[in-house]
Amino acid sequence: MEKMQNIYITGTGFWIPEDGLTTNDEVVISYNAYVDKFNSENAEAVSNGSLEAMSHSSSEFIKKASGIETRYLYDKRNCLDPSRMKPKTRPELPDNTSILAEMGVESAKKAIENAGITSDDIDGIILGTSHSARNYPAIAIEIQEALGINGYAYDMLVGCSSTTFAISNAYSDIASGLASTILVINPELTSPGNDFRIRDSHFIFGDACVATIVQGNLDNPSDVFQIKDRELVTQFSNNIRSDFSYMNRTDDLNRGDEVMFRQNGRSVFKEVCPMVVEIITNQLSKLKYNADDVKRFWLHQANGNMINFVAKKLKGENYDPKVAPMILQKYGNVASAGSLIAFHETKGDFNSGEKGVICSFGAGYSICSLVVEKV
Hints:
Blueprint: E1 7-15, E2 21-23, H1 24-41, H2 43-47, H3 59-66, E3 70-72, H4 76-79, H5 99-115, E4 124-128, H6 139-147, E5 152-156, H7 162-175, E6 181-188, E7 208-216, E8 225-234, E9 240-241, E10 262-263, H8 265-286, E11 294-299, H9 304-315, H10 328-331, H11 338-346, E12 355-362, E13 366-374
Parallel strand pairs: 4-5, 4-6, 11-12
Antiparallel strand pairs: 1-7, 1-8, 2-3, 6-7, 8-13, 9-10, 12-13
Helix pairs in contact: 5-6, 8-9
């Protein structure tokens, strides 16, 4: 382990499309209308057995399968239009501000204010996301320009662990002396990548953005969280996959929407959850802590059943729900932003010396666990 200066999370900020609140009932009504339309238009093929009829969804199914009750969608109207089933987004053109940059600027301003600093104090921006709007120029550099920040900025992608991996990169940049203050931004505009016509995933995602200020060289740190330790693990798997790429135009497969988000949820649960428990347990043991020393686990907000599995293994069958908050009930699966939004919303009751774990896990597979302590 490196011996270095203390490094802290000093501020966070959060953005959602306020007019995009969408209930399970609304999602189900839209999906079932699409199903009825599909089955009607393909009645002959369904009748002769050459095509399988689609099945309805239900709010009860969604709640049981995921724990999600609502989510916020960037373009609710078009996402729920049975004749469209996807948002309509502003084109990524040179004269337009990128939607991800717009989200990032709003959450960044809140994080900067929360940390009590100004844009002039920031040395660099690291943007981590599971869904990038373009290859280049980097969205982070567009945000840098909008906020008038000097230094450097770059984008990175590690699936649903992009937020925590980006915070880890910020830690490394500060520890190396490259920077003193880093703005980490995690815009998750998930709805364009979600196929709202698939029963097992039409309800999963929400749109959101979170930003974090990471700082070192603090003379008198107060009301901040020191990053005590980092663990990063990756293991290749195709169980969560998106093949969306510039090479789609040259591979001659003409796969259309098939290149968007797809997952084998049961395999992900079976394979990832035990890995997360093992990584956190070993990390705490390395630090000479145990789970009882941790006040809160801010876990990846993909699925309530996954959170329950990990929390029960760490804290026991009858764990207090406050130990592992589920903000996914309100916001849905917001990809890599989920664990930090949980941290942002529930860190206010920590006293000095109390510890928590911020842990993301998902596509890759990728897992990053950060042990933090309130100062």
